[in-house]
Amino acid sequence: MGLTDSIKSMFIGLFVAVLVAVVTLFILSNTVKSTLLSPEFYETQFEKANIYSKIQDALVDLLASSLTSQTGSAHGSSPIPGTTLTEQQIKTELRAAFTRDWVKTEINRLVKGFFAYLNGQTNQFSLSVSVKSRLVTAATSVLSKQYPELPSTLVKEQVETVLLKDIPEPLDLANLLGMQSLNSQLTSARDAVQTFRSVSGLFPIIIILLVVLIFILIRDVGQTAKTIGIPLFLSAIPSVILTYLAPTILTSLISSLLPGIIGTQGAQQTDQLGTLVSDLSKFFEPVVQDLGVQYVYLTIISVILIGIGYLLPMMGKKKETKGKKDDSEEKTDEEEEVEEEDEEETDEEDEEVEQKEKKKNGKKKSK
Fold it and tell me: Cα separations (Å) of 223 from 49, 306, 358?
């Protein structure tokens, strides 16, 4: 092997290695875009994990706590001064006002708005929800039951102007949850997502360019297909196996990380920790499944490329053999034609000789 061939082989190996890496990044980026950066993914997973009901419970507790702090909770057993209402009664009315369907609608709206902002479709995102009107309805309902002799309009007016006058409309969940730096964090996240989408959009172009460069160096379709197909197959098979083992690996990983995140006291609560690990594993399971499906597609494509790499030379040999056979048959036909022409020429020469002899004999007889 000469120096030129060595350099060519080195570049082919380099391009193939880069191609495998870029294909892997392309698959990962497709999975991220179709799952983690898709609002539909979260809607489906929230429904499966019963997240809407859990958020409803948390919202009712939060609003009940906020209502208590607004009215003063140190007045006997009732969180509202001058009434005999219990906290459970207040939560029941709040639950009737803030239904699961309403929570689902609002959460989906926030999720879609969040990803519209991340994807550059809108220029602003606000983590705010209109709750005051429903809160007024709930408070009016519960107080009207406590004071049936009072007109509902008067009760509602008192609720709006006294009881809930300090409740903002809309309610900024970021401030309520102590996330004052949310806007700056969202800006950083948006920049990161935009960069990710821009870079991942270049992957198909890079893949095509690398394939073209490899073909130019090899100058053979079959050999190019085999050179690309075998490394892709070798990278796809372990990845397919890994994605099927991923749920177990993911559960173990989350189990090992959570104690360090939630602290020693939380880690001791074995049942809660186990439930949390299970929920997180199920939540991200479709991400792994999507990744596995794409690697199966890659395996099929690589097998097709390898098949082409082996079939094309065989077809070429068959054509070459057939061509040689046709050439030999043509040569045989030509030889037969030459022989026939020689025979015809021989016959003509014989006839001429006979005619000459006849003439010669005729002259003798005449003498």
Answer: 50, 9, 74
